[in-house]
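User: Please look over both lines:
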Amino acid sequence: MAATLAAPSAGSTGMDMLRFATAGSVDDGKSTLIGRLLYDSKAIFEDQLAAVERTSSQRGDEYTDLALLTDGLRAEREQGITIDVAYRYFATPRRKFIIADTPGHIQYTRNMVTGASTADLAVILVDARKGLLEQSRRHAFLTTLLRVPHLVLCVNKMDLVDFEEVEYERVRAEFTAFATKLDVSDLAVIPVSALKGDNIVSRSENMPWYDGPSLLHHLENVHVASDRNLVDVRFPVQYVIRPKSTEHHDYRGYAGQVAGGVMKPGDDVMVLPSGLTTRIAAIDTADGPVDQAFAPMSVTVRLEDDIDISRGDMICRPHNAPEVSQDIDAMVCWMVEQPLTPRSKLVIKHTTRTARAVVRGLEYRLDVNTLHRDESAQQLVLNEIGRVRLRVTQPLFCDPYRRNRTTGGFILIDEATNRTVGAGMITDAG
């Protein structure tokens, strides 16, 4: 399973796109909610709908089961569960969306981490009849651990509690009280019925006591541009461009994706690890030169001086550099059966830099249900999260994950199999 903690590009123009993850306990209705969003926003084809109607009929359902739009694997359908991260795409006139539909079971914590790691927003579903379950609490904690900036609690299945305000308020109060223990910066609570479509795309007449937006209206209008770190310039070099044609023989550019800050021609910059300084001469994109670049734009930077720069180097501002360190403290989510133990040797991929790493120690294992720290833990096994100390063979140019999710995130790879075995969030370097 591939995992990443660096958001893919939204294009060189930084088009308005919202990446959101859905989470919640099993049978809380995540797949139905996504199916309803796709269906009501006209994001599915007629033949897809016909196939879903046919399958629903064959199974003896009295209604068109929109969950079948997202539960693509037949084995999943037959078990009635979703097991992996399913990515869906749809658009409205206001915004483009990428949905990461993550599974609810505890044994798929790694999938939840994968889906939420690049999300701008997380939608957590809670069954109005059951209230907060262990899985709901775990998913809320994981989204805050992964620094997902916006959280939406959907109190689902309101049709099964007769759209009663008191039932909604009970769940809202319970979740709000739990959220005070977490680092939740923006929380919205919306009562919905994914099955019936209440408050999904348009406001529901069944809940006149609720005066907030529908879910889609909130997703279309939530402000995510300011979530990016526009203060600390971070530009990991991915590729050095030296055209072979004689026409452009003197062109030298450094391609990559802006991970933080705003870059403009004329700005003073420093290159790590050399520490050499120069100025930005120009910034090119696929659509031509631009007068500024910011996350998550993919650009080519040209510099005034000819400096020896290669993949894995970092361009930043002279007086605002990331940490340069070979000793890393991080929260790691372990993703494979083979346990992580002290002295484990791995490959670390951080932005565009790859190095070898050894586990110096395991500080504690975190119980994601109770938030208890087990400092006696000797290892991390599949789906467990813990605080780990790493020693890296060459310095990483990093920030704490809470400050920058791109320069603060990394993945761990098994050198023998090339499998992604862990995802990490840097808490401290140095």
